Amino acid sequence: MKAEVLNNLDNPRQLEKLYRENKVGFKREFNLVYPEIKENTVAKFWNERLNFENEGISWGSKNELLFVVIASCIAGLVAKFPQFLNINEEYFYPRNIAFIFFPLLVVYFNWKRNIQTNKIIVTALAILASIIYINLLPNNHKSDTLTLACIHLPLLLWAILGFSYVGGNLTSPQKRLDFLRYNGDLVVMTTIILIAGGLMSAITMGLFELIGLNIGKFYFEYIVVWGLAAAPIVGTYLVQTNPQLVSKVSPVIAKVFTPLVLTMLVIYLAAVVYTGKDPYNDREFLLIFNVLLIGVMAIVLFSIVETSKNSSNKIEVLMLLGLSTVTIVINSIALSAILFRISEWGITPNRLAVLGGNILILTNLLLVTYKLYKTVRNRNEIENVEISIVSFLPIYASWTTLVIFIFPLLFSFK
């Protein structure tokens, strides 16, 4: 987008189009390039427009606000399907919880990005096929492939959401990076919404308790469930219409948590050695180890994405390099443990899924760590770190698709 901004300074109409397609990304890239073009009259105008401190909250257009209200209501209705349609909750939620809000977010970005009709059809068919497929899988609670499909399905829908977010343009690393930033901002905003909602719920039920009315069951079933379903939709709407709300919060979180997580991991690895915990023979510990790995990997990616906005601080880059290096150690331990278990007890769906995921994560981490090392020596290399992150997104999506659709057939739904 940086090149597009520079090339269209004399084309106000095209600049406006770029801005409306991705307000957050446009503002970030414009501010980065502004020192080079600050003498340009058009650039001065855009600088004032983009960086004017708006004290209020923008509620977007009426159509957008109406869409969010309707989408939130639909999300709540889908979440209540088990009660309304007399469906077993243990059957419905593991298979369909991701369909409560992901399809609505896909529709939102299809509309916002003015995606071509053929690409809209692709996303619609992908979601429809996923709904049909996951609900037709045999209802066997002991099936590992069913569990794996249910766990990986939200990741597939997340990938479809990413396709809509980037406007179907899969060749642009910058747009993929914007999608990751959107996810980080959405997590922050949704967390704030849920905390505020939790406080309001506690106060509301407490006030009714004081007058002798117990509304806990009703409140949870018809208010809390609806609120949880609507939170990602409302959070997305606020992030897209008010990028300034979390634009300064996310980098702070990244800067604070990077050294904290690095310290925690070093202490944790030392504690593992001290206590003699064995991920090679302790299945439950290996499972927790892999969950930890995924969580740390997410923090690494989030921190890099946020730090890349300002790569001038060498200490931050060194912290990220240390964090990614320690994460490689954790990944290597987990990978060696799963290889050991496969060699001892053979291949199962779970072991194969974990093996594939660990190999992908380790490969990605090695590439990111190498690019971070180069960034320490040359700060301009931060862009290559970003590319090394987003280049793996289609690979993760492909592996997720394989686990969902091929594993059940490969292992005869066992």
From TrEMBL:
This is DUF4153 domain-containing protein. It comes from the Bacteria. The chain crosses the membrane at residues 65-85, 92-111, 117-134, 146-166, 186-208, 220-240, 252-273, 285-305, 317-340, 352-373, 393-413. Keywords: Membrane, Transmembrane, Transmembrane helix.
